[in-house]
Amino acid sequence: MQKVHRIVLVDVIDPHLHKDEAIKNLEELKSLVATYHGIDIVDVIQHRTRPDKATFIGSGKVEELAEIVAGKKIEIVVVNAIVNPSVLFNLTEKLWIINPDIQVWDRVDLILNIFDKHAQTLEAKLQIEIARMQHMGPRIYGLGTTYFSRQAGGIGGRGIGETNIELMKRHWRDQIKKKRDQLEKISMQHMTQLERRKENNIQGISIVGYTNAGKTSLFNHLTKKKKIVENALFVTLDSVTGKLYLPTLKKEVTISDTIGFIKDLPSSLINSFKSTLMESIHADILLHVIDISDPKMDEKIGIVEKILEELKVKAKRIIYVFNKIDAFKGDGKKKLSEISNKYGHYDPQFISVTTDYGINKLKEEIEKSLDRTA
Ligand SMILES: Nc1nc2c(ncn2[C@@H]2O[C@H](COP(=O)(O)OP(=O)(O)OP(=O)(O)O)[C@@H](O)[C@H]2O)c(=O)[nH]1
Ligand SMILES: [Mg+2]
Hints:
single chain, alpha/beta, Rossmann fold, 3 domains, 4-stranded parallel β-sheet, binds magnesium ion
């Protein structure tokens, strides 16, 4: 049995927002916590126009948080934002007295820790280590600055503290460079493979989309592979390529499944995953898989579109694949017309991997697209 972590979620919300709405906003963070095998014991939500500069929540709320940490044996505090490293440090300092092992994370820390648990290949592991080092670096220098300036103050000079921080930074940079060089070698192998396929005129399709949309389910269905599918976030971290035979075109193409996207991914994290995402960046066609039963569908489409733009994908065509239509509840006609208005130029397809609905039509659409882009 995996250890279950006792977690408190901390959020600051607009004073005008209703409590129910605030809780809804925390839903994705709660799914992330569950994926990490955590139990969200309590939520500490504060209404204020903007987060406190030093501790995210105000000092009264910090007291409340400290009592919860003590009373409920909390191990991890997760702040629902990406915050300045000093904020996490200040909060940790206030909670240390209660639990010397307390960890205070932001959203990115939580995501990185999930990645860490799910990573299987050397490539994924290296990418996570680099992302983690980049994310943690400033926090450690921050800690160093506080620590060393106190120390230096005590012995009457600033020089020692600064030199030590410089040394630490240099060591950190060297470590990151070593990992980058290792990753570069793996990326080069990918690139060579891709180029070989191009030379042999083998076209490539790549499945992308928000996490938990059903990408791996679709990939398994099309390739008859058995990659892990789970109702959790970031189940897939690596890129896997399979083959798809297209009967009308009488040819085989490659199809790849990869890591899902989520909101608030810092660019540095996306950049570290470029090696895994290489198949998607260079694919001829992208299948953007979307969970049509998700109330936040439009927002999530927007987030994926933005990340694809950041990645500078070269695909000649993007097909929007609306999955899970079996689970859609509501006015279907209205939804269809909204989709065709908003996303009509992406040849929307409607499928359910679970019931097999629309899969043949999707394959025909893929054939048409490939025929045009060949
Ligand atoms: N109702 C319904 N559920 C589906 C359908 N397709 C996939 N799912 C479920 O959606 C969940 C996520 O599926 P995955 O295929 O793992 O999703 P993913 O996009 O690969 O997720 P990550 O790799 O974690 O980003 C699983 O519980 C699937 O069983 C569908 O057509 N209908
Ligand atoms: Mg997956």
